[in-house]
Amino acid sequence: MSASSKPIDFLWFIPTSGDGAYLGSGELTRAPDIGYMTQIAQAADRLGYSGVLLPTGVACEESFVTAAALSAKTEKLRFLVAIRPGTASPAYYARLTTTLDRISNGRVLLNIVVGGSPGELAGDGIHLEHDERYAHADEFFTVWEELLEKGIASFDGKYIKATNAQLGFPSVQTPRPPLYFGGSSDAGIDFSVGRVDKYLTWGEPPAQVGEKIERVRTAAAKKGRDVSFGIRLHFIVRETDEEAWAAADRLISKLDDATIEEAQQRFARQSDSVGQARMAALHGGRRDKLEVSPNLWAGVGLVRAGAGTALVGSPKTVAARLREYQDLGIETVIGSGYPHLEEAYRVAELLFPELGLERQEQRHGLKSDFGRHRVFGGGSHGGNLKVVSGS
Asked: Considering the entire predicted model, what is its pTM?
């Protein structure tokens, strides 16, 4: 079986800093209140997404707390929550991890976030240079992993000192919940291959993603480890390619050049992320050359930090592009779209069938009819579905 013939693991995104219909505009925006985030999580759970990513940062609601609230409102959905070394001790993060894993009945995934904005990190008490943050993270996870596996740990390192640290309860998942990580620097890759289960990349063109995967595989092999791969992408899927490209244009239709320039200058000034620099290089702040690879559109990155590209097209087109990434080794997709509630439905209803993923009624074991061909009848009191005559 080829890599692209295997069903892909598809997660969605919880916009814990807010949502909206237009990038770079104050029109039709939505606050990240718990009611709205619950709607997205429950939709993702019903539609067949395997999990959701919750981001971290000063502009986001706290990921562990939000995941705890959403886990009580969902059934199967997994929660990829951010764990940021240095914002708390390894022992405290170990307790957060096991508690969330226990109350969610084993639905926790951990996303290691080491980098970002030096200014924001300084506000959190982290005063380390780029590469040094990964040395610190390695010591942090030495203690964290030992606590998850054994319930007790001691460590005397350059950055982390733990004396008889203890963990009261084990996690549901053994020996620990899976660890995910994304980072493009040499220091980040070297750290990740010694620790993580899944390496994540942002949505760069396939050739660049392929090069990065080979770098990670080579580094992992030197440490005797295997790492699986995932990709973070936005999606603009419509019934036809033309409709999808029109929706992409609409998404940035209220975005002016001054806002783009301000955002790009802020990203360059505030971030020392290699991945962020790679994202910015795809479009160079220009809105006239946004298709950076067939159906890969960099318009999101004009104003959004981090993941800045979207796959745009019909279900068949987007599925074909995803298979190209699968053939490179991508097994997991973390998707999103604007607004996230409506786009969760569009992606599941239009794209999932092309990817061989289960529809909602298949996943929950509910049949919608007796096998007769039906059409939607408008939802009247006579019945929503009408049997087609002669079929």
From this structure: 0.92
